[in-house]
Amino acid sequence: MIWAKNKTAGPAQTEKDDLWQKVDSLAALLRDTEEYREYFQYREALHLKGYFDLVQELRQRQAQVHLARVVGVENQENEDELEYLYAYFGAEPVLSNFLYAESRFFTLLQQIRDSFAGCLDLEPEKSRFYDRNLN
């Protein structure tokens, strides 16, 4: 259960409690999706095979290459290592299945977030700004 345990009396707190109960319900619905089940299944397989550190290395290389491109200092060695990792991941079913399942699940989460933004008259691009810059 996600919602707060310290409840205080009053209508505002009751509304918040109701909101968090609904968040719990939405999370339960998400856990029942094919996207979540596959993501969780392949994440477990990733850990069992000992590939978690390799995925972290891929993400680190991606971040390095991206940052180098942003600042205008490309590093061919990092880009070559990243290409090698992509080829390796593509040839290894546990890794490629995990990345595909992860992409599908996080795309679903993004679609839900965009839907909330639309329902609340927020600009989805502006809400993504806060993820990148304030977390």
Question: What are the main properties of this structure?
Answer:
about 140 residues; single chain; mainly alpha; extended; about 80% helix; 6 helices
Walkthrough of the structure:
With about 140 residues, the protein is mostly helical. The chain has one domain. It contains six helices and no strands. The two termini are about 25 Å apart. The model has no long low-confidence stretch (mean pLDDT about 85).
Give helix % range: over 70%
The figure for the number of domains is: 1
Number of helices: 6
- Note the main sheet: none
Classification by helices and strands? mainly alpha
Overall pLDDT score: 85
Tell me the radius of gyration: 20 Å
What's the β-strand tally? 0
Beta-strand portion reads under 5%
Pattern of helices and strands:
HHHHHH
Dominant shape: extended
Distance between the termini: 24 Å
Unreliably modeled segments? none
Short description:
With 135 residues, the chain is mainly α. Helices cover 81% and strands 0% of the residues. Helix 2 (34-48) packs antiparallel against helix 5 (93-119) and helix 3 (52-71) packs antiparallel against helix 4.
Give the topology.
Blueprint: H1 11-31, H2 34-48, H3 52-71, H4 76-91, H5 93-119, H6 124-134
Helix pairs in contact: 2-5, 3-4
